[in-house]
């Protein structure tokens, strides 16, 4: 029996236990499947037990695996807490807001007021899927987005707090036939091809939400394309392809476009505050307090039952961890 275990091996063990699937667990940890299998074999060898029963059809925990799993989780949580304490509560936090002028920015602004002694640094990059990988790797501290759209193994490494059900909208060229309407019934988008980040590995959760919304309605998701970065590039791409863009009602204004809310039904984009499990920092506490305050004051977590929201998102937004 070894005196020390590499925490990486325990993370591999818990990821496979969460997914019961080596390919999905490897994707959740952003490692090759061969490397994950090698780590599991090494851990089994060092512990002298078999942790999983593997067949061509399924992966299940052995009795020893079930017995040791809570201990592995406890060790990893203790390591996360130790690293958070060692890093010092005064260290700056890097907070990803996706875009300027949205609910996440208001949460950050209020958190800075609540904890002026903390340095909360903003960055603006698109997609919770990409941000989650950065959080797990320790290159980012906090982000916002659709938590249910992440892989289960990724969610297991993160904590989240529901912030808002954001009504969805479409961004249209100013001369688009639908642009004259003040609101766009969802069925009016039938026959349209709508851009929703397809092909961008950092926004998989958003594309998945769009596919769920458009399913059976005759609305196509635009083909994969590089994400337009910067106002001028966005203007050029919109003028060339003229595809409506799926967005939320707080999406920042763009030149030569109009933003119109979607109705009948009103689709909701669930927004959560997301950080690495086990992290202790007054900046995270301030962000959580700010989100609670704004959500309570402005009814961000209230919505009409007639609104559209996937079942998986309903359950995840109720599961605050």
TrEMBL record:
Pfam families per the UniProt record, alphabetical: HTH_1, LysR_substrate
Alphabetical UniProt keywords: DNA-binding, Transcription, Transcription regulation
Residue ranges that the Swiss-Prot or TrEMBL entry lists as coiled coil: none
Entry keyword Transcription regulation: yes
Top-level taxon of the source organism: Bacteria
Domain HTH lysR-type: 5-62
Endpoints of the signal sequence: none
A molecular-function term among this protein's GO annotations: DNA binding
SUPFAM superfamilies, per database record: Periplasmic binding protein-like II, Winged helix' DNA-binding domain
The keyword Protease appears for this protein: no
GO CC terms, sorted: protein-DNA complex
Stated family: Belongs to the LysR transcriptional regulatory family.
Record's protein name: LysR family transcriptional regulator
